[in-house]
Specification:
By secondary structure, the chain is an all-alpha fold. The chain has a domain of 51 residues. 54% of the residues lie in helices and 0% in strands. It contains four helices and no strands. Helix 2 crosses helix 3. The model has no long low-confidence stretch (mean pLDDT 92).
C-alpha cells in the first residue's frame, strides 16, 4: 500500500454533509458502515478515501494511522 494514501486520511477533511470539516480518519464508523451498506460512497478520490477508511476500521488497523495523525498535527 502507498503510505501517501494513509497520510491523506489524516489530512483530508470531509467537504460536505453532517461531518463536513472532520478529518476522514475521524468520520464515525457507523457512517462508513452506512455508506458501505447503501453503496453510497461518492465517486472519485473522496470515495476511495472513505472506502479505505472503512476497510481500515473493518480490519482493526486504525493503529496504522496514530503515528501519522500525531505527526500531522505538529
Amino acid at each position: 500500500m502507498n503510505p501517501e494514501i494513509l497520510l491523506q486520511l489524516v489530512k483530508t477533511k470531509m467537504p460536505y454533509g453532517k461531518y463536513e470539516g472532520r478529518l476522514i480518519c475521524d468520520v464515525p464508523t457507523f457512517y462508513l458502515e452506512w455508506m458501505a451498506r447503501e453503496n453510497a460512497f461518492p465517486k472519485g478520490k473522496l470515495g476511495d478515501q472513505l472506502r479505505t477508511m472503512y476497510e481500515i476500521r473493518l480490519n482493526g488497523l486504525e493503529d496504522l494511522l496514530k503515528p501519522l495523525k500525531s505527526g500531522s498535527q505538529k
